[in-house]
Amino acid sequence: MVAIKANAVERFIKRPDPDITAILVYGPDRGLVSERARALLGHFATAPDDPFTVSILDEADIAKSADGLIEELNAIAFGAERRTVFVRSGSGAAPSTLAAALAAPREGILLVEAGDLKPSSAARKAFEAAGDAATLPCFADTPGTLGELIDTSLAQMRQTITPEARQNLLGRLGADRLASRAEIEKLMAYAGEGARITAADVDEATADAGELSLDALVDAVFEGSLKPAELAFERCLQAAMAPARILAAAIRHALRLHESLVAGEGGASPERAIASLRPPVYFRRKDSHFRQMRRWSESTVRRALELLAEAEIDGRVGHMPTASASRVLLRLTLLPKPERR
């Protein structure tokens, strides 16, 4: 078994080891898992949708016994040197089937796409026990890998990006590789071939009105600005944004504010505390974050998180999520707090 380290996965995908005939692609970033599995499928099969050279199976197809999977792996590939069997196994189910197929003589390539498998997963253990298999972990993107994704994508259309726009874009990416790629491609199409992309381009191409209102809402709440908070809350509701999503955004923001306050109380300057946050604070929101750090303390943000969590539960149990969200956001906006010196 070859356990490919996370930082070597891209190199392996571009040039897989010819001695490896079984590959497990897994991890928490389902978009990245799917993208890499598809890239490997394209390497092994010139026509991934050709049923004469590729067999695409799911968990239900392999759940009953290993015989069917082994038969597919040894089936003749018309028009190709060998058949590729691509198994989508989100939870790593049917590990005994996979283990049997890995242990049996086979002519074809076995490629398995799975979800976030723990080290104790039977599917991972099956691949780790096979001498001609490799496991490829796909962890969430870092600012570094997202930067590489931006650069390689823009290069395809001979585009460049300003440092300000790059930071802006990085702040909007990262939850899922496919979603990140879609946002980048949307920006590329908006800017046009050969363009120099600015921060304004990023705003226009990637932010919808609801997202901008949500950012404005959490900043206004934690700054204590009542009228802007009320207006932003109404805009979020007009954009059909669920109250649970609004509260989740407020909780995420409070956690980031708490992190920067902890760094500040540990001796870091406000500038260094904010710069340490990942993903980076969007440049247009930095001034607001500074003001929030003066208004809040580590202990009061912890209290805010408690109130937000209670409101989230109250919205689910009481079946009045909009009212619960409105009450807690108003309370946080009006909460009197002395300026931090």
TrEMBL record:
Keywords: DNA replication, DNA-directed DNA polymerase, Nucleotidyltransferase, Transferase. GO terms for biological process: DNA-templated DNA replication. GO terms for molecular function: DNA binding; DNA-directed DNA polymerase activity. It catalyses: DNA(n) + a 2'-deoxyribonucleoside 5'-triphosphate = DNA(n+1) + diphosphate. This is DNA-directed DNA polymerase. It comes from hydrothermal vent metagenome. It is an enzyme of class 2 (transferase). InterPro entries: DNA_pol3_clamp-load_cplx_C, DNA_polIII_delta, P-loop_NTPase. One of its GO terms (cellular component) is DNA polymerase III complex. Belongs to the DNA polymerase HolA subunit family. Its EC number is 2.7.7.7.
